[in-house]
Amino acid sequence: MLRHLIFAFLGGVAFTVLLVNAQSQSGFISIDCGIPENSRYTDRITGIDYVSDGSFTDTGVSNNISPEYKSDKLEEQFLNVRSFPEGRKNCYTLKLDPGNSKFLIRASFMYGNYDGQGKVPRFDLLLESDPWESVEFENASSIIYKEVIHVPQKNYIYVCLVNTGFGAPFISALELRPLQNSTYVARSGSLALSERLDIGSTTNETFRYRDDVCDRMWWPISFNNVTLLSGSYSYFGDKYKLPSTVMGTAIMASNGSDFLNINWETSDPESKFYFYFHFAEVAEKQENDTREMTIYEGGDLCYDDIEAPRIISLNLSSSGLEGKTTSYLFGLTSIQSLDLSNNSLTGSVPDFLAELPSLTLLDLTGNNLIGSVPAGLVEKQKNGLLSLSLIILSLMGSVDSSLDENPHLCGLESCKEKKKKNKFIVPAVVASVVSVSILIIAVLCIFWNIRRRKQGTTKYHYLNYLNF
Ligand SMILES: *[C@@H]1O[C@H](CO)[C@@H](O)[C@H](O)[C@H]1NC(C)=O
Ligand SMILES: *[C@@H]1O[C@H](CO)[C@@H](O)[C@H](O)[C@H]1NC(C)=O
Ligand SMILES: *[C@@H]1O[C@H](CO)[C@@H](O)[C@H](O)[C@H]1NC(C)=O
Ligand SMILES: *[C@@H]1O[C@H](CO)[C@@H](O)[C@H](O)[C@H]1NC(C)=O
Ligand SMILES: *[C@@H]1O[C@H](CO)[C@@H](O)[C@H](O)[C@H]1NC(C)=O
Ligand SMILES: *[C@@H]1O[C@H](CO)[C@@H](O)[C@H](O)[C@H]1NC(C)=O
Ligand SMILES: *[C@@H]1O[C@H](CO)[C@@H](O)[C@H](O)[C@H]1NC(C)=O
Ligand SMILES: *[C@@H]1O[C@H](CO)[C@@H](O)[C@H](O)[C@H]1NC(C)=O
Predict the structure, then answer these.
(1) Coiled coil where (predicted)?
(2) C or N terminus of the chain, fewer CB within 10 Å?
(3) What are phi and psi of 441, to 5 degrees?
(4) Is residue 165 exposed (0-12), middle (13-18) or buried (19+ Cβ within 10 Å)?
């Protein structure tokens, strides 16, 4: 039970940058259950490409939902279902492409009186051979999503529906999305979703693909007595690949020194809960301001001293950056990887880049830089501490023409030679930032022995995502 989140806002550093993220459905398996075999379509609302379930299961029958449950706002995946009136257990087999090891698996259900019985069933789901969740409906138009993050042991996954004596199981859609292996790490077992909330949302919209490249679904939630914040957000190589629509809005306690309380209840006695909090600075702040907060769960300290710029990796490649450097980047003391390639940066390579203690990758190629490379950077690179890319890809267009047009331009190797001749002139790049903002810290709190209210059903571990 998450009782208190304490936010002591002391300001925050703000930067802004816009990036465009590539969005492909690579690795997605999107199955619309119950549509004619071998058919496929692109959903007009989400843009997701669905295929029929014919090649994923051998059993069951196709049905349409009753016309009175159809509407323009309903995703196409809910118009048909596959039901399993025969047999206790019926399964789907999802074959996996090699190369991914962790997956989000989502099963979706809407009864829609497909069988004309007017009675919602209740049944169980299995993942592999383990119990996943029970599926229960409030009414015929309830949409139920069950999600789990799972690391399969083999190159296929079974999802099974189990008849528990309360009506034939059915399913509307089954989806699988690859996730980066290093995200959502569980100590053991799989992680079933409890809630994933878009905090600070100013619309009533649930976001998923294409806003979220991993097609997680984010449900809006509103709070009383809070200040809504919004700004721009880009993930810069954040491994969670959080959607900018979700991260660009936030809430803050109305009185700056006040608490933000988030109440959360569970009916499940046996579960462990993982909370993932994602923070992004979206407010404009003064230069030296910082924002700090402490998170408590119940009375227990969960995470202390979250400070604004804790950026480890910043990828501003091809971001249309112009102009000279700024020392904002100097504040990024944790930064390990900085990619500023393919921009229109001018001026010289700033010395402070050599003083970023954790920097192991610096890419400044493809800019209009001039001057000398700081000795500290060259030294670090020589010692194998830094992977440094300065080679000029383009000044006016191509390597050759730029070098022809400006004989003083050179890459790192040739510059070293020139240095011997005491002509150490190098085009390089600079961080014309721009106010870059951010960032995000994904905070993971794991709470054990959570107290509860009611008897629970058989469930696995839960995940809760909160996004500020
Ligand atoms: C059906 O149940 C959902 C919750 O699952 C609820 O939001 C909706 O109002 C209900 N509809 C009717 C017609 O009762
Ligand atoms: C995925 O992460 C786990 C630890 O969380 C590790 O044991 C496993 O080797 C990783 N798998 C791949 C393919 O990187
Ligand atoms: C969101 O829903 C609430 C309650 O249903 C409504 O009052 C509000 O106007 C809606 N906001 C938007 C932006 O649609
Ligand atoms: C909001 O804050 C005001 C003033 O502090 C208080 O009177 C009111 O009860 C609060 N409203 C809610 C819903 O907490
Ligand atoms: C915030 O709360 C503190 C302590 O309750 C109070 O002294 C202060 O006036 C409040 N500030 C604002 C802006 O309401
Ligand atoms: C920010 O901090 C630096 C170093 O402490 C100081 O030189 C500068 O004047 C400060 N800027 C502002 C706006 O306070
Ligand atoms: C930065 O992003 C570009 C394209 O999005 C990619 O080609 C490049 O490898 C990335 N750089 C790093 C250091 O990951
Ligand atoms: C460089 O950036 C421009 C847009 O700023 C883009 O069109 C181009 O493809 C990028 N080139 C490389 C090599 O990434």
Answers:
(1) none
(2) N
(3) -125, 125
(4) exposed
pLDDT value of position 257: 59
Q: Tell whether ligand 2 has an atom less than 6 A from the beta carbon of residue 20.
A: no
Three-state SS annotation for 25-76: CCCCEEEECCCCCCCEEECCCCCCEEEECCCCCCCCEEEECCHHHCCCCCCH
Q: Are 430 and 348 in contact (CB under 8 A)?
A: yes
pLDDT computed for residue 388 by the predictor? 77
Answer with the residue of higher pLDDT: 131 or 399.
131
Ligand whose nearest atom lies closest to the CA of 11: 6
- Identify the band that residue 236 occupies on the pLDDT scale cut at 50, 70 and 90: low
Residue count of the chain = 468
| Ligand 1 atom 12, closest CA | 139
Contact 428, 367 (CB under 8 A): yes
Per the prediction, the chain carries an average pLDDT of 73
Please tell me the residue having the least CA distance from ligand 6 atom 8: 288
Query: Ligand 1: which atom is nearest the Cα of residue 139?
Result: 1
Ligand 6 nearest-atom number relative to CA 286? 13
Q: Is the pLDDT higher at 73 or at 35?
A: 35
Q: Which amino acid is at 8?
A: A
Report pLDDT digits (tens) over 332-370: 667 788 888 887 777 778 777 888 888 888 888 887 777
CA 97 to ligand 2 center in whole angstroms: 16
Smallest Cα–Cα separation from 108: which of 217, 265, 26? 217
Q: How far apart are CA 126 and CA 460, in angstroms?
A: 11
The pLDDT value recorded for residue 287 is 65
pLDDT at 386 > cutoff 60: yes
Question: Looking at the CA of 359, which ligand is closest?
Answer: 7
Residues 37-51 have a mean pLDDT of 94
For ligand 2, atom 6: residue with the closest CA: 181
Q: Tell me the CA–centroid distance for residue 245 and ligand 3, in Å.
A: 17
| In contact, 389 and 369? CB cutoff 8 Å | no
- In angstroms, what is the C-alpha Rg of the chain? 26
**Ligand 5 and 55: CB distance under 6 A:** no
- Residue scoring higher pLDDT (434 or 246): 246
Over residues 433-451, the pLDDT tens digits come to: 222 223 333 344 333 222 2
